[in-house]
Write a structure and sequence with these properties.
Layout (H helix, E strand, L loop, with lengths): L2 H4 L1 H6 L7 E2 L4 H11 L3 E5 L5 E6 H10 L27 H11 L3 E6 L2 E7 H23 L1
Helix pairs in contact: 5-6
Length: 146
């Protein structure tokens, strides 16, 4: 498969809107955005609009399991977000992304260009792309055999 076709995963993802949140917003805002958009993670930006973290449904659940009485309207995102974010660039293929997700047990990876957030890839995006590649290869094999 050629590089142009392979990079269609990230190039396609860069065309959609990136939903993010500021690190100084309350957890309640993150929950509302995640729910409204039916997504599982939000890249977190600092006051300079640079990626400084990621907050996931899992982060929120872990915090609630530690402190069920947490005030979601007063506790800030930067208090529970993951600060050491694994990122990718636009020129990475789906197999490498899947390897990163598997190795680090994560489901979302922000796409950056010079520390600026330009997109995000989810496990669902990668699985969809790998299935497309599998089906295409399967069609090629069948056409060769028959």
């Amino acid at each position: 498969m050629n590089a142009d076709k392979e990079n269609s995963l990230t190039s396609g993802l860069l065309k959609r809107e990136v939903i993010s949140i500021n690190e100084n917003k309350p957890l309640y805002n993150a929950i509302k955005i995640l729910t409204k958009n039916n997504i599982g993670a939000l890249p977190v930006l600092n006051s300079n609009n640079k990626l400084c973290g990621i907050i996931t449904e899992r982060d929120i659940l872990h915090q609630l399991s530690k402190d069920i009485g947490i005030n979601l309207k007063k506790s800030l995102i930067n208090s529970i977000m993951t600060s050491k974010v694994i990122t990718i660039t636009r020129n990475i293929n789906s197999e490498v992304i899947m390897d990163l997700m598997t190795k680090h047990k994560i489901r979302h990876i922000p796409i950056v260009d010079k520390k600026a957030l330009i997109g995000i890839v989810s496990i669902g995006d990668v699985v969809k792309r790998l299935l497309e590649k599998f089906n295409l290869e399967n069609q090629h094999l069948k056409s060769w055999l028959y």
